[in-house]
Design goal:
single chain, 60% helix
């Protein structure tokens, strides 16, 4: 089975927002019609987004431009190997995180962000 990380992310988002909201929340980088074609996997009706669209798509996806570029490279061009700039901690957690559903991964991300903010609020950045 061919991985479709970009399409999968759009399909996940479609459970929660409309195509019009995708267009708006991605800063207008792509039209509602384009998002619909991606969600429906009508690959003959859309081209991969150009690099200039990555910031808006990253905003919509709640991720980095680099992660969006990797999704596009994987899905549209079959590129699966990239230099690994990840820390040892990230590599340790990666397999377990990748096994989670999108909903659970979103929950873990919210928890991590909450813990980071809690640590930032503590004196000297140390949580008790």
């Amino acid at each position: 089975m061919t991985e479709k990380p970009f399409t999968s992310r759009v399909q996940h988002l479609f459970k929660h927002i409309t195509y019009e909201q995708m267009a708006e929340e991605s800063c207008g980088t792509r039209s509602a019609s384009w998002w619909r074609h991606v969600q429906l996997e009508q690959t003959d009706r859309f081209n991969p987004p150009p690099p200039k669209d990555l910031p808006g798509i990253a905003k919509l996806f709640g991720t980095t431009e680099e992660q969006v570029a990797a999704m596009i490279a994987n899905e549209f061009y079959g590129i699966t190997r990239f230099p690994n700039p990840r820390s040892e901690r990230e590599r340790r957690f990666a397999e377990d995180l990748n096994a989670l559903s999108e909903e659970d991964a979103d929950l873990v991300l919210r928890l991590v962000k909450r813990l980071i903010h809690k640590a930032d609020a503590e004196p000297n950045g140390q949580a008790s």
